[in-house]
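2 proteins. here.
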Amino acid sequence: MTSMTVNGEAIHYKLDPETPLLFALRDASNLTGTKHGCYSGDCGSCTVIVDGRAVLSCQLTIAAAEGADVTTIEGLSADRAHPLQQAWASEQVSQCGRCDPGFIMALAALMRATPNPAPEQLAQLPNICRCGATPRILKAVARAAQVAAPLAAFAPPKAEQSNSIRFSNGSSIEDQIPPNDS
């Protein structure tokens, strides 16, 4: 039996220890907010927070998560009051919804450590939005950063060039930075 804390509740899984955390969460715990996508760690839709760090749950076995503190999108905020969830709704980020929970969880972990992340940090996230909502995602991050750290205005320095096309959907990071409307 594998034990961990999921969204503040002690859970004991009677599953094969090599079961990916993704399937334990979705199938055994009925926490379907964690999405499955690629099963290879390339899309980020299965991102959860494990011991304070964003983790791809399709790549982590429940044996490796033994004793861990796991937070899914359902546990981030019971009433969707987390600044990222509020900003996501305000900026109308969602299109198909497949990437939303993973993005929000990856960003929540990043913004806990860095309340106003730089474009380079955002470009390094393993999350992909296939619908092209990147400009709205960046606006939502800026809005959440202002709520989380009201004294720090979101004015990231322009990056010279981003090597990642995963977050920017093929365009350079400069094309994706929302204007500073303050």
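next one coming up
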Amino acid sequence: MSGSEDATLEASPAEVGQTAEPSRLESMPLVRRVEGLLISADKPLGEGRLANWLGLSGKGREAQVREAIEELNAFYAEHDRAFRIDRLAGGWQLLTHPEISPLLDHVHHEKKRRELSPAQLETLSIVAWRQPVLRAEIDELRGVASQDHLRLLTEHRLVQIVGQAEVPGRPNLYGTSREFLRVFGLGSLDDLPLVDGFDRSAEAQAASEPPESESPKDDAGAEAIIPESLDDSTQA
């Protein structure tokens, strides 16, 4: 065994930990640090949060993050990599290209993809395009009760209560969540296709990009697919 190997084996835990000194990390190229954060993240990360973690300061710190992401995507495209960094739910996330999905299904076969029932999808569509919207308005548009579908969509964090209407009884107003944007691969509600008769309000625009200070509890257990436990049995 060589002397260098002996030194490695005999190194103490404290000496091993010194290989990750802050000074060495700070000297690492920004693009490499950005890539490391995004590879390890299981949810979209906003530019402000990335800048904070990277120790960037000044007015142009978020622009530095965007430039690093652009440089990484250019490198991925040049080398025909299977992934890229996409804008998603108000942040950035490393995602594989859609054409790779059949291969990933083999790897993640235990996470069976479930589709929303037609009634649930119809309810979710109305919320997405008409938000903030009352349950009574959803029922009127569908012609049937939507309470059970709203409950399921809320439980799976695709829909959330965004306020109360200024009418007697102050009924709840419903809108889509950040998880809705993430699951359907949308950067914001602006990415929804335009539909005649469905004009999004200023409140809906504001709700499309929740503040980056959103608590970790809201993001806990997020999955990029419709949860397998989604119940399709309560169709109207």
